[in-house]
Design goal:
The structure is a single chain. The chain is α/β, with parallel strands linked by helices. The chain has seven helices and 14 strands. A seven-stranded mixed sheet has the order 1-2-3-4-5-6-7. A five-stranded mixed sheet has the order 8-9-10-11-14, with no helix packed on it. Helix 1 packs across helix 3. This is MBL fold metallo-hydrolase.
Length: about 240
Amino acid sequence: MAQDLVVPLAPNVWRIPLVRDLVNGFALRDDDGQVTLVDMGVSSSGPKVMAALAAIGSGPRDVTRLVLTHAHPDHAGGAAHVARQTGRGFTVHHDDAAHVVEGSSPPRDRSVLLGRLLDRVTRPGRDFEPVTVEHEMRDGDVLPIAGGLRVVHTPGHSPGHVSLLHEESRTLITGDAIFNVLGLRWPVKAFCTDFRMTQRTAHVLGELDYDVAAFTHGAELRDRPREAIRRFLSRRSPS
């Protein structure tokens, strides 16, 4: 297995470094060989996702589900390429589904100047190439993926932002609720729809049970990650 293409997190669960460790996707494989891919990185990342698929010994025909944690171009940028290669549409939370279909980011936090400026340049199809949504997920859903992938709605970064808990391997995919870049930190305010909501809803991540915390931005935590996330959240409670 090419270690530079995939990082094993648990049996049949891998992180896919798409821009070093700064932007990540994920792959999960069922016992029968079916593969689910989560997040496709930036616009140039599609081929890297497919190379990672080959690195775990699977191919496009094995992919039965594509999932996006939210509709931002650093997660959905490579989505169209992967969709064409696999022939699959996407699973996304109901509140971000329309944005995925039109290829646009949700509104940014207008209390932040950069957020207002970013909103001015957002246009359908400009942020990322539109893709088909074949399933809309909601909070508490358990997707039939590798023994069950629980949907944890953590809105704020976007209206339909989700974190995902693979209960069988006790692996949490945080999405952009929390970054692990030079330590645990919040996502950039201007990229959030509602930064204060991001801070509020992330607290649910301290209430879940997991042994590995995997981030879409930054490397995973394996040493008591729940305690580390709880400490981060307790120090940075929203006012």
